[in-house]
Amino acid sequence: MISLEKTRQWSARWIGAGDNHINAFVKALPAPYFRREFQFDGRPGPVVAYWCGLGYSVLFINGKRVGSRELSPVATEFDKRARYLSCDIRDYLRPGKNAIGVVLGKGWYDNRDHNHWHFDRASWCDYPKLLLEIRQGRRTLLKSDSTWRVTKEGPLVYDSLMTGEIVDARKDLGAWTQAGYDDSAWAVARVVPGPGGVLTEENFPPVQVVESLPMTETRTQGVWDVGKIIAGRARIHVKGEAGAQVKLMFSDELSPDGTLFFGHNGIYCDDARFQTDTYILKGEADGETWAPMFTYHGFRYVAVSITGNASLVSLTGESISSAARRIGYFECSDPTLNRLLECTVNSYVANFPGFPTDCPHREKLGWTGDAHCAVETGLSLFDMADNYVGWLQSIADSQRINGQLPGIVPSSGWGYNWGNGAFFDYVLPGIMMAAYRFTGDVAIIRQFYPNLQRLLAYYDTIAEQRILRIGLGDWSHFIREERADDALVLTAFYYAHATAAADCAKILHHREEMRRYRSLATSIARAFDKRFYHGEGVYGKGEPTAQALPVYFGMCPKARIPQVVAKLDETLRQHDYQAYFGIVGAKCIPMVLSQYGYADAALKLVTQKQVPGWGAWVDDGATALRESWGSDKSHCHIMFGAIVWWMFRHLAGLSPELDKPGWQTLRIAPAIPEQLEWVKASTQTPFGPVAVAWRKTAYDTILFDLDLPEGIQAILALPGHDEKPVSSGHQIVELGIRN
Questions:
Q1: Tally of domains in the chain
Q2: Is residue 9 part of a domain?
Q3: Residue 139 neighbours by CB distance under 10 Å
Q4: Average pLDDT, the chain
Q5: Residue 21 located in a structural domain
Q6: Which region among 252-266, 325-339, 482-496 has the lowest average model confidence (pLDDT)?
Q7: 188 and 250 share a domain?
Q8: Quick one: CA torsion of 435, 437, 443, 448, rounded to 10 degrees?
Q9: pTM
Q10: Which one of 271, 306, 322 terminates a domain?
């Protein structure tokens, strides 16, 4: 596991421009620009800059931007923890006099937008500030203090995550990051209070521009299309006179007349500049190229309007996300599943700007339920474990003394009394156990097990006879009134927390605690059965989620499972396999169907093209997953993204096992639907790449093409066949189809 507590001793001081935001009504101020000159004697060896600029920072040395990080450092619970960055800057330096410049953006640290979640009133909220040191070995070459200079008169006159940036290039500061620059008119930086939390290193994959995409103009003049929904920005090249303005407005959807549709996406921001960037030209003869530094938007379409004498030369979309390596791939004979995979990848990338978010436009928030629904999908597709572990630390930092968690992380203090509950709170054990399962790193369990214990202790204070009723249930059901009882869902997740705690105790060899949590889980299961099971295989009112969830979590007695799953299939069949469930059901129902002999039903559920359903989105031309089955809300959400985990686990048979984590064992047991002809999937493991492919032949057999690295123990298991051990290396195995 990455070191979450890696820190250092600082001789530097936090510095600012002398301004602060003492309440939510203080006017937003322009970005601060800091500079300082220093001497370097040219001696060999690494020279490392350490810095934390809150909310976001960009560092320049001798006229060059340092590194390629965007939107850094990643947001945290700033009054509990902030993260510093480090970089070897030796190649940027020259013997003699050098200059350093830093510009700071607001980010989540100084969010001035009046929004539903009160980040403008967060306890940490303050004008951006900087802490920086440059060291070579034991020598300190430079540190932030009151000898630095600062100005608020630079070109970045406004920046906001929700609205956008306004840059007036006429205010260009010239060679302000070069030695010899005259900064006599700049103010003296002031020593200011820090954010209040511990300062630890950000050492997981950074946020970067991960893809650049050409844009084409649509039939509506001035409206451009990047081809798919992304999270990021537009880079413009423009020519014109000084003072001309280019305004860029962003949306994921068009109105019928071809103009941008904002509707549901702007409902939580009362600023008309929502998702809008403005660039004011300085009038360079060869044109000017610009992209914002401290904001990003969720969009497919950009509306460009120009005021004054100027013309747009080019427009490029830049996708911004955590730059974790893509490791997982899936493809099959069904085009709907292939398109659904692409939509999920797009949604996932668009919703990971350093930590998992719900959507990249309207909220940009770390909704906990959305994140854990898609964690196994993410870990199958991307080398993202370290990023998840980093966010787990923010979750731990957000936990109240009584064990309570908020529904969003980071949180300004909002989300403790609504937006959470045992389903959303499952983010803690869900991500912890998934990261352990995929990596085998027991340090993850050791680090966060105490937080899970505190969370369970909190549930003991609000449960009534082992039944939980406080919190969100099967969120985003097509017909809200027909969703499974919230208490049923919450109590099932209460049980899942208890079993996860028992598993953690077992892993850590805490036998007494393991027995205690197993006993708790048993008592919850009994209370659940008494309250929600009504005989003849029916839980609740027979809603699909109510049927699948107790089977998914292992609460349902084994002898009862066939009847319960049969009732689940019957209910789905009565609805023509439409998705009459929310995000809880979206994760567990396809899994349960495939695991217990209903592979054809699972495939039909996922691919049928009536509303509600995933296939309906694909048929409607979606390029990302949507927030609602009816497509009347955000067109880029990740909370229905567990479906790709189902593809890996149950169509390809490719998933790590909890009892042998880190891919020590692999039980290749795909559920093979009649309508699927072939599947191939691959991912990266600690032992190396693993690939599984199968295809049906004309001779009623299935041909498996397997490629396994040394160190993995694998078993091939199909219904009607004896389990077959599979050795490492490449091999072909042929088995007969058994119905």
A1: 4
A2: no
A3: 11
A4: 95
A5: yes
A6: 252-266
A7: no
A8: 60
A9: 0.96
A10: 322
Of 379, 374, 373, 415, the residue nearest 394 (C-alpha):
415
Same domain as 647, residue 676: no
Residue 738 burial (CB count, 10 A): 11
Question: Can you give the pLDDT at residue 739?
Answer: 53
Structural domain boundaries enclosing 185: 15-154+171-204
Judge contact between 669 and 680, C-beta under 8 A: no
- pLDDT (tens digit per residue) in 383-395: 999 999 999 999 9
Q: Is residue 92 part of a domain?
A: yes
Domain membership flag for residue 94: yes
Domain with residue 277: its CATH number is 2.60.120.260
Whole-number Å distance between alpha carbons of 88 and 135: 10
Amino acid at 411: S
DSSP 674-694: TT--EEEEEEEETTEEEEEEE
pLDDT attached to residue 360: 96
Does the pLDDT of residue 5 top 80, yes or no? no
Cβ distance 185 to 174 under 8 Å?
no
What is the reported pLDDT for 19?
A: 83
Q: Within this chain, do residues 673 and 604 fall inside the same structural domain, yes or no?
A: no
Would you state the pLDDT for residue 252?
95
DSSP string covering 467-491: B--SB--S-S-SSGGGSPPHHHHHH
Q: Could you tell me if 226 and 412 are in contact, meaning their C-beta atoms sit under 8 angstroms apart?
A: no
Instruction: Please compute the mean of the pLDDT values over residues 92-106 and round it to a whole number.
Output: 97
Strand partners, 133: 50, 143
List beta partners, residue 668: 716
Same domain? 640 vs 682? no
Whether residue 311 is found in the same domain as residue 399: no
Question: Residue 721: its pLDDT value, please?
Answer: 83
Is residue 24 over pLDDT 70? no
- Please identify, among 268, 297, 322, the residue that sits at the C-terminal boundary of a domain: 322
Give tens-digit pLDDT for 259-296: 999 877 767 777 778 899 999 999 999 999 999 999 99
| Residue 100 in this model has a pLDDT that exceeds 90 | yes
43 lies in the same domain as 29:
yes
Pair (34, 134) in one structural domain: yes
Question: What is the spatial distance between Cα 679 and Cα 651, in angstroms, rounded to a whole number?
Answer: 7
| pLDDT score at 2 | 60
Torsion of CA 23, 29, 31, 33, to 10 degrees: -100
Do residues 254 and 309 both lie within one domain?
yes
CA distance 657 to 256: 48
Q: Where are the alpha helices (DSSP H) in 382-441?
A: 385-398, 422-425, 427-439
- In this prediction, residue 699 carries a pLDDT of 81
CATH number reported for the structural domain that contains residue 678 in this entry:
2.60.420.10
